[in-house]
Backbone:
């Protein structure tokens, strides 16, 4: 059967092309049709860190190219794997493509993990496929927020362990930052930093006590108390300015994202040492601490509160390789309205 993959040039992320490939389902394998997936800056970060963080390794592509991983839902169209039936639907981590060929292992009614040899060394959170369920709401909402809000949630749990007076979030308009701001809102003051063009949108969500544009970082210098920074932007100049302005009032600095992926990322920062935050590892640690069920119960309660507050979201759905490529280019170029939630099908 012919499938379509969208392959991105590793050295030029704006360059993307549809590539047709023949696949045959081998013994133990399943072929799934990818019904819908979300596209956010998180996927651009996967591509920007395709080599150094291994994101190109999940779905092998032609020489010099990469297939961007995406989160969403797929239906089994052919199965040669025991316990996985045709028509079954799963939530998980897919290639930006029309179909995915997987090798299920540890199959249960709850789902399976892909045991393809090239994926075994990669973080297990990405290799798990969960039986689709309406428990987390409509599929477009799940595709958009399940991976991102789980990160917001584990960040919030970590930050609650060492409370500060003020939390500063960069790329405050990003969905992961919005989830964190909403969860952390009543614990301390939360200040969002964003681009001037996105400031009005961020204010309108109501999640932040104050919203500043990147040009106004100096204003932080007038504020007293202890601060923690959660950086979603990866923008070295922004990060440096916050560290320099706050000095020793900044007691924690977490590096989470890289939405401004095409800006320089300075390694040396004044003041407190910045810590890299990698949700897949932290999720595994929390599950070890609370058990899988304990994790799920806590996450689900926080998730329901957040999703009930997302009146600002406008889901935009589109299908076809050309439409997906155009949305990808707009996103990589920073031209997507933060109120939009892109949910796509190749
Ligand atoms: N460490 C982890 O484990 C982990 C887990 C989940 C997510 N993340 C990261 O968190 C970040 C946010 O992801 P998301 O999916 O929530 O983002 P999103 O909702 O798509 O964020 C959109 C916002 O990001 C900024 N942005 C996006 N593309 C840009 C570009 N090309 N140039 C400049 N700014 C751009 C803009 O914010 P502003 O104008 O407000 O700057 C934009 O409004 C990503 O880097 C993602 O990888 C990390």
Residues:
């Amino acid at each position: 059967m012919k499938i379509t993959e969208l392959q991105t040039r590793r050295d030029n992320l704006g360059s993307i092309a549809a590539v047709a490939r023949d696949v045959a389902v081998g013994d133990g394998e399943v072929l799934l049709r990818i019904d819908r997936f979300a596209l956010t800056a998180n996927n651009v970060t996967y591509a920007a860190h395709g080599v150094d963080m291994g994101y190109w390794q999940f779905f092998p592509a032609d020489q010099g190219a990469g297939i961007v991983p995406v989160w969403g839902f797929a239906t089994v169209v052919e199965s040669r794997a025991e316990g996985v039936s045709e028509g079954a639907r799963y939530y998980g981590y897919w290639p930006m493509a029309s179909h995915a060929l997987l090798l299920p292992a540890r199959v249960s009614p709850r789902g399976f993990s892909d045991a393809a040899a090239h994926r075994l060394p990669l973080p297990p959170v990405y290799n798990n496929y969960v039986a689709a369920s309406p428990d987390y709401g409509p599929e477009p909402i799940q595709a958009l927020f399940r991976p991102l809000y789980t990160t917001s949630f584990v960040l919030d749990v970590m930050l609650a362990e060492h409370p500060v007076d003020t939390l500063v979030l960069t790329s405050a308009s990003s969905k992961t930052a919005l989830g964190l701001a909403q969860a952390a809102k009543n614990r301390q003051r939360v200040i969002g930093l964003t681009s001037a063009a996105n400031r009005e949108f961020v204010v309108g969500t109501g999640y932040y006590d104050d919203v500043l544009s990147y040009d106004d970082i100096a204003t932080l210098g007038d504020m007293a108390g202890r601060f923690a920074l959660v950086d979603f932007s990866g923008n070295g100049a922004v990060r440096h300015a916050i560290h320099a302005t706050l000095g020793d009032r900044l007691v924690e600095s977490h590096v989470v994202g890289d939405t401004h992926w095409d800006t320089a990322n300075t390694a040396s920062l004044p003041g407190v040492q910045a810590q890299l935050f990698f949700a897949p590892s932290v999720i595994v640690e929390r599950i070890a601490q609370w058990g899988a069920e304990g994790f799920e119960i806590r996450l689900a309660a926080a998730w329901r509160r957040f999703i009930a507050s997302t009146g600002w979201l406008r889901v935009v759905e589109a299908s076809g390789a050309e439409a997906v490529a155009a949305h990808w280019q707009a996103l990589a170029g920073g031209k997507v309205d933060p109120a939009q939630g892109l949910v796509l099908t190749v």
Remarks:
- The chain has two domains: 2-132+317-345, 143-280.
- Residues 40-42, 45, 148, 151, 171-176, 194-195, 198, 232-233, 256-260, 277-279, 332-334, 338 surround NAP (CB under 6 Å).
- The domain at 143-280 is CATH 3.40.50.720 (Rossmann fold).
